[in-house]
Every structure is written in C-alpha cells, then in structure tokens.
Amino acid sequence: MISVVILGAGNVATHLFKAFSKAKNVVINQWYNRNLNTISSYKSEVEIIDDVSLLKDADIYIIAVSDDAIAELSKQLPFENKLVVHTSGSVSVYDIYKKQKRGVFYPLQTFSKAAEMDFENVPICIEAINKKDYPILKELAISIGSPTKKVNSDQRRALHLAAVFVNNFTNQLYRIGHEITESEGAEFDLLKPLILETAKKVQKLSPYMAQTGPAKRHDKKTIKKQLKQLENKHHKDIYELLTSSIQQTHGTSTNSVTKSYKNK
User: Fold this and answer.
1) Which CATH number does the domain 156-262 belong to among 3.40.50.300, 3.40.50.2300, 1.10.1040.20, 2.160.20.80?
2) pLDDT (tens digit, 9 = 90+) per residue, 221-247?
3) In the chain, how long is the greatest CA-to-CA distance?
4) With 126 labelled, which of 119, 196, 248, 261 sits at a CA distance of 20 to 30 A?
C-alpha cells in the first residue's frame, strides 16, 4: 500500500485525488490546501488541513500547485529526506527543497475540474534524482491505470512546450473557429467530426504527412478569398502566420500570397 499526501487543490490535484481514491493499493493520508473551503466538500472522504505543521507521515508527498508556488511550499514542509514530487511540466526537479528526496510526477494531459478523466489516457512522466525512488513513483502511476515514461528534465520541458502548441494553442484556434461560425449563424457542432478526425489521423500518420488544406497545396485564390473574408485583424494575422508556417514546412512559397493580398 502506497500512502500519499496531496498538497494543492487545483485541477490536477483534484483529479489525482479522485484517481487515488479509486486505486486499490493507494491510501490518501491527507489533503492540504491553504484555503480549506476549496476542498471542504471532500472532508468526509479524507482528512483536510490548511497547516503544513500538521502533515502526517507518507510515502510520497505530491505538490500540485501553481508553478511559482512549488519552491516556496516545498521549503515549508516540516520534515526532511521524504519523497516530495511536483506535477509540473516546466519546473525543474531542483526547485524542490534540497533536503528532500526530489522527483516529478507529471501527468501529460489537459485537466478541467468539470470534465471526467480516465487515467488510462494520461501518461505519467516520471523523474527522480535518486534512481531508487523511481520504482515507487512508477507503481503509483500504474495503480491509477496510467502508462508511464521515464524522462529527464530537458525531455519533460520539451513535452510541456509541445503540449502548449498541440493543446492550448489548438484550443484557441477552436475558439476562433467558434467565433467565425457564430458570426454567420453557422453551427460549430458541424466541425466536431472534423476535429475528431484530425486528432485520429495523427495517431497513425505524422503531423507532416497528415497536413492538408489551401496553404499546403498553395491555393492562392482560396487564401486571398479567406483573408478578405476575415474582418477581425487578429484572426487575419493568425491566418497569415500559420499559412506561412505551413508553406515553409512543405517547401512552397512562404509569403508571396499574403504579401500580395496586403499590398492591394
């Protein structure tokens, strides 16, 4: 049985709590947060505290707070030489206070409190300064059904940066698409099968091979027409930037189309 303490109450912390609660070989000793109101609804399921001096002994202490707060919170822990991990994709493992056994338990997925999460679809990237700490972190991940991957700091940072592009930036493009359809009373829901098919395609093809559209085929007429159709300058700038990026990737003329439109 692996005993854990969760520190923090954001999206990741909440989903980890739910997953650990269902795991047969995991026990949650405590859940800490500065504001008890945030986790008060769980007080019948776990001991909740707002004072680090009250922390109980555990095998693993999981810091799931904002990136900027990780280092300071780890310094406040009233013990030494315990396995303390954070869940960030971009924060160094060395940001954890040096008197602890330090590691990273990074779930590579997008989390929203309102959305259910199946951890079978959440790879856990594991990093541990002491190699002896890796097995228990792997066991903890497996206990909630997650695939695991041992990574170093550079790999983890690269994965997190890539995740910003494929998730956060892509979601913003969905938002722009939603605004465009709404402006003409079209149904955004009609695009959802396309969104799913695009995601499915890169499970089998590389993103390079999966690319389609007017930018790749260098369809000047369509590109000019769509640039003229866009009334929002911000949307127009994004269209031009991504068109140029696709054309550079696929070896077509990079800026001639958008520049020729601008000059008219």
Assistant:
1) 1.10.1040.20
2) 999 999 999 999 999 999 999 999 999
3) 70
4) 196
